[in-house]
Amino acid sequence: MEHSSSARELIERAFGQAKRSGKPEWWVMAIPVLKNRLLQITGQTFKESHFGASTFREFLLNNTDALEIDNSFLPGAVTLKSAERLPPSHDISSPQRNRIREDLWRAILDYSSGNRYVWDTESSAAIIAPEGSEGPFFPTISPETMTEWKTAFLGSMPQSPDDGRLKVWQTQSLPTNALPPALRSQWNRFVKQKVQSALREWFESQRIPSPPLVHPAIPPEKHDETALFREFLIKCIAQMSKEELEKLSIPSSVAFRVNSSR
Question: How far apart are CA 19 and CA 4, in angstroms?
Answer without folding.
Answer: 23
